[in-house]
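Lab meeting tomorrow. Look over both lines:
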Amino acid sequence: MKVSMTRDQLLKPLQQVAGVVEKRQTLQVLSNVLMVVDKGQLALTGTDLEVELVAKQELAGDYADGRITLPCRKLVDICRALPATADVELSLDGQRMVLRSGKSRFTLSTLPANDFPNLEETLAGAFTLKLQQKVLKRLIDKTSFAMAQQDVRYYLNGMLFELSAGCLRVVATDGHRLAMCDASVDAQLNEKMQIIVPRKGIQELSRLLSDEDGEVTLTLGSNHLRVTVGSLTFTSKLIDGRFPDYERVLPKGGDRTLVAGREELKMALQRAAILCNEKFRGVRLHLSEQHLKIVATNPDQEEAEEQLQVEFSGTTLEIGFNVGYVLDVLTVLSGAYTRVILSDGNSSALVRDNDDEQADALYVVMPMRL
């Protein structure tokens, strides 16, 4: 096996797959990257058994076909340390890989390619659709903050992808707040399809996507999700579980509506949060006609009070929220004004952009008893 290329041609795909390679592995081969040279193309694969990433690079220089695995971090560090204009030659010498670049020479240990686990199986019963890369990135960016972390309800430690005729919806919840975002897609389905992608998979996918116009291909299988972005192929195992019926927790029939400037409300909450009880992070909202008062206290008897002029319809209301949850929502919303629909002090709030035409994302935040 042999391959010749520029330092940048090797470093870029290497850095892309290195994100899924864990530094400390029980299996040594999982710390390695699989390198395959075949028919003028180099394919690099990294995996942690839950997520797999394959990056491909066309070869213009000298090459000889072959397959081997190399220590991923060491290879990345060597390539980073080489001059940007350097040429790199990799050649297999028995059980060692020799990397030459100018007057530099490195000999790296290898492990057989047959020891490397493979997620790239044919996805049984899969459904494939195409959509804009920036649309998929927006879906993830608008909702991923609400995923649970290490919850015993393992099905919450990920994101629901729900595909129905003409619509791809993603939902994330940790039991205290819920985020949901829709996108129109060209999909003809007789019945809804639901999969739960684990947190690690969502984080890696978000890292790969950009706001460009390029197209991505999503393949939804019974056990895996596969996403193809240009020369990258991302595969993630799915969480085997049943996502809660999120539609049941969407507040309905709220008779109180608050409309406030998003940035103004966000800044007021950030200031009030300085004196929050750090353990519970609760703030109290007092709502009356055209007026919002935010109060935060802590065990030291300190108090913060903020007053805002807002649009508020309905009878006077006092309600408590975890300030961090509300700030998370205001951070991902994009409209100049935010609409909050409320029922009473014990019911969840429905939050969205006030611009109805753009309001494809909505959020639910449960109240706190203060």
